[in-house]
Amino acid sequence: MAARDRYSRKLECSRCGNSGFAEVSEDDNPRRQNPGFLVDEMPAGFSDERKSNDPAKYMIRCRCGSVFPFKQKSHYAPGGEPRA
């Protein structure tokens, strides 16, 4: 079983300004076809709209009804940047 990379990612709604940090993880083996992306903890006011194993296809819903992709331009928590 492969180890998991864990990091925090700031989610911010462009419509209402709601923000918070999501705790996420993915497989640390770059040779795997599927990164095994999971949102382990979602901040208050956000929910899953469409789950995906690929962070580029994972969609988030804000409490105001706005839907946006997880992989939007956003800020990372200090020390939470993903490793290359």
Oligomer: single chain
Strand order of the largest sheet: 1-2-3
Name the helicity range. under 10%
- Contiguous low-pLDDT stretches (5 residues minimum) are none
User: Could you report the average pLDDT, rounded to the nearest whole number?
Assistant: 83
Order of helices and strands: EEEEEE
Counting DSSP E segments of at least 2 residues, the number of strands comes to 6
Main pleated sheet: 3 strands, antiparallel
Class of secondary structure makeup: mainly beta
Q: Bin the strand percentage.
A: 35-45%
Shape descriptor reads elongated
Terminal Cα separation, in Å? Answer: 20 Å
Radius of gyration: 13 Å
Counted up, domains total: 1
Helical segment count = 0
Region (Disordered): 22-52
Outline the structure in words.
Helix content is 0%, strand content 40%. By secondary structure, the protein is mainly β. The protein has one domain (4-69). The strands form two sheets. Strands 1-2-3 form a three-stranded antiparallel sheet, with no helix packed on it. Strands 4-5-6 form a three-stranded antiparallel sheet, with no helix packed on it. A hairpin with an 8-residue loop joins strand 4 (46-50) and strand 5. It starts with a strand and ends in a 15-residue tail after the last strand. The model has no long low-confidence stretch (mean pLDDT 83). Residues 22-52 are annotated as: Disordered.
Could you give a short description of this structure?
The protein is mainly β and 84 residues long. 0% of the residues lie in helices and 40% in strands. The protein has one domain (4-69).
